[in-house]
Amino acid sequence: MSISAKDVKKLRDVTGAGMMDCKKALSEADGDMDKAIEILRKKGQKVSEKRAERDANEGLILTRISDDHKKASAIEINCETDFVARNDDFQKQANTFLDAAFDNDIESAEDLMKVEVDGLSVEKHLEQMVGKIGEKIEIARVVLVKTEGTLVDYIHPGNQLGVLVDFDGDLSDDTVGKDVAMQIAAMNPLAATRDGVDASVVEKELEIAKEQLINEGKPEEIAEKAAKGKLRRFYEERVLHEQKFVKDNGITVKEYLEQNDAPLVKSFYRMQLGEA
C-alpha cells in the first residue's frame, strides 16, 4: 500500500526514529500506526521513542561564512539540556553538520538529513547521538544565503542567538558590519525596510492603533488619520534602517551606514533558539 509523507512524519514525531525506518515500518504494518511503533521498538528504537516524548528546548545556533563573504549557512540543533549543548563532542558534531549544510548548499533541515558524513547520513548520526547521549536531538532549522553583496555573521555569546546580514554592496569596514548584526540581535527588527514588513502585520497595527484611539473617545475619521502616525512609530521601532542605532541614539541605523559610506542592508536572518 502507499504510505503518505504525512504518516511518515507523524510516526517520526512520535518515535524519534529515522524517516526511512518509519516508512519501512509503516509499509510492514500496512499503515497501522500502533503496529509500526511496535515494529520500530522491536528493531531497537526504544530509546528514541522515550526521548521523543520530551522537549528539545536547548541547543546551539551555528553559522559559517565563506572567505569572500558571498555565501553563508546557519543551523539550529536542539537537545534537552544545556549540559549536553555545552559538551565538546556535541558541539564538534554540530559543527560537522553545519559544514555538511554549507558544502552541499543545503536549504532545509529535511534535506540535510539525507547528506552523508563519514559514510552515514546526518539522520543516522542523530540517531546514534540519541542512543549515546540519552536525549532527544534534532536539527530544527537550516538557512542558506548567497549574495552579490556582502554577508556578515554574528553569534551572541552562548550560541543561542545568531544573525546573518546581507549588505547590498561591498562592505570595507568589518566593524560596521558587526555593529549592524549586533543591532539586529539586540533590537529584533521585522525587516530591513518598510517594504519588507508583511502587509498583514501593517494592517493589524493600523487596526490596533485605530481601535485604541476610538476607545479613547476619538471620532473614527480622526482616529484613522492618527493611527497612521502611530504606524510611523511602529516602523521606527521595528524596521532596521529606521531604528535608533544602539551605540548612538542620536542617529538611525541608515544614517550610521551612510556616515560610514557603507551599503544598506538588503535582508537579514535572525535565529533565536526555539523560535520557529
UniProtKB/TrEMBL annotation:
A Pfam family matched in the record: EF_TS
Keywords: Cytoplasm, Elongation factor, Protein biosynthesis
Record SUPFAM superfamilies: Elongation factor Ts (EF-Ts), dimerisation domain (SSF54713), UBA-like (SSF46934)
Compartments, as annotated in UniProt: Cytoplasm
Family: Belongs to the EF-Ts family.
Annotated function: Associates with the EF-Tu.GDP complex and induces the exchange of GDP to GTP. It remains bound to the aminoacyl-tRNA.EF-Tu.GTP complex up to the GTP hydrolysis stage on the ribosome.
Record protein name field: Elongation factor Ts
Natural source organism: Rhodohalobacter barkolensis
